[in-house]
Design goal:
Layout: H1 2-12, H2 16-37, H3 58-67, H4 78-81, H5 100-112, H6 118-125, H7 129-140, H8 155-164, H9 175-178, H10 197-208, H11 216-222, H12 227-238
Helix pairs in contact: 2-5, 3-7, 5-6, 5-7, 8-12, 10-11, 10-12
This protein binds heme C (2 copies).
C-alpha cells in the first residue's frame, strides 16, 4: 500500500531534480533513523548506506563545522552556532541534537532561497550536499541544550497554545507535530525544546510574513497567530524539555 502510493507519487513528479532530492532525503532519513534508534552507540552510520552514495561522515562534518575551509570559502559555523551547536546568543539558533534530515533540509533551503536569510544563504552557498549531510550528522549527535522560559506572565498562554492549540482560530496543538516534550518527530518535525525564544519567535514571524516559505504547514499555522501569541509560545518552548 505504502509502496504503491510512494511509486505513484514518484511518477507524478516529472522533474529529475525533484526525484533526485527524494533520493537525497531517503539517504538522510535512513542515517538519522539509525542514529536515533541507538543514541548511546558511537557506531558509524555506514549501515544505512545507499549504493552509489557517499558515506555520511560526521568527523568530516565536525572538522568543517569547527574550522571552516578557507580554500573553498566555507566559514566556521562554530563562530555563531557555538561549540557542539550550542549557541550563546538568541539570534543564532541552537543546532545541537537537532534531527539530521531537518538540518540538511534547512541548509538546502537556504541555498535554494526558499528560506531567505542573508547570512545563512551566503553560508549555505559554499556547501555541497555531502558537506550538509556530514555537518548535520555531527550536530544531531551533540547533547541537547536546555533553556528556561523568561516571562512568567505569558507561560500559561504559551503552554495552552503548545499543548492544545487555539480552537477558536483553528490553530492546532504544536505538540501534535513537535511532540509533548518538544523533541520533535524525526525526520520531518524538528526539535524545538530548549531553543532560544528570540529565534523561535523570529521564525514564526518569518513564516507569517512569507520570508520563510519552506513549510506550507507552518505558514498556515503562523498566519493565525498574533504577535502576543507567538511571543508567549516561543518563550514557553525555550523552557520545554
Ligand atoms: C555569522 C553567523 C553565522 C554563521 C557563521 C553560521 N550561521 Fe547558521 N544561522 C545563523 C543565523 C542568524 C540563523 C537564523 C537564520 C534565519 O533566521 O532564518 C542561522 C540558521 C542556521 C540553521 C537553521 C537552524 C534551524 O533550526 O532551522 C542551520 C542548519 C545553520 N544555520 C547551519 C549553519 C552551518 C552549517 C554553518 C557553517 C557552514 C553556519 N550555520 C554558519 C548565523 C550563522
Ligand atoms: C502539522 C504539523 C505541525 C504543527 C501542528 C506545528 N508545526 Fe511547527 N513545524 C512543522 C514542520 C514540518 C516544521 C519544519 C519546517 C521545515 O522543514 O522547514 C516546523 C517548524 C517549526 C519551527 C521552526 C524551527 C526551527 O528550528 O527553525 C517553529 C519555531 C515551529 N515549527 C513552531 C510551531 C508552533 C509554535 C506550533 C504551534 C502553534 C507548531 N509549530 C505547530 C510542523 C508543525
Amino acid at each position: 500500500m505504502r509502496q504503491t502510493s510512494q511509486i505513484s507519487k514518484l511518477t507524478s513528479l516529472r522533474a529529475g531534480f525533484a526525484v533526485l532530492s527524494i533520493f537525497a532525503l531517503i539517504g538522510v532519513s535512513g542515517a538519522a533513523f539509525a542514529a536515533d534508534a541507538a543514541p548511546m552507540a558511537a557506531a558509524p552510520e555506514a549501515k544505512a548506506e545507499v549504493p552509489g552514495k557517499p558515506k555520511v561522515d560526521p568527523a568530516a562534518g565536525e572538522a568543517l563545522y569547527s574550522n571552516g575551509d578557507a580554500t573553498r570559502g566555507v566559514t566556521a559555523c562554530i563562530t555563531c552556532h557555538g561549540p557542539k551547536g550550542q549557541s550563546a546568543i538568541g539570534t543564532w539558533p541552537k543546532l545541537s541534537a537537532q534531527h539530521a534530515a531537518y538540518l540538511t533540509k534547512q541548509l538546502k533551503n537556504f541555498k535554494e532561497g526558499t528560506r531567505a536569510n542573508p547570512i545563512m544563504m551566503g553560508m549555505a552557498a559554499t556547501l555541497t550536499q555531502e558537506d550538509m549531510q556530514n555537518i548535520s550528522a555531527f550536530l544531531s549527535k551533540q547533547p541537547i541544550s536546555q533553556g528556561v522560559a523568561q516571562d512568567k506572565e505569558t507561560i500559561a498562554l504559551g503552554q495552552s497554545i503548545y499543548r492544545g492549540g487555539i480552537a477558536a482560530k483553528g490553530v492546532p496543538a504544536c505538540a501534535a507535530c513537535h511532540s509533548p516534550t518538544g523533541a520533535g518527530i524525526p525526520a520531518q518535525y524538528p526539535l524545538l525544546g530548549g531553543q532560544w525564544a528570540e529565534y523561535s519567535n523570529a521564525q514564526l514571524l518569518a513564516f507569517r510574513e512569507g520570508v520563510r516559505t519552506n513549510s506550507s504547514q507552518m505558514t498556515t499555522i503562523a498566519s493565525k497567530l498574533s504577535d502576543k501569541e507567538m511571543k508567549a509560545v516561543a518563550d514557553y518552548i525555550a523552557g520545554l524539555h
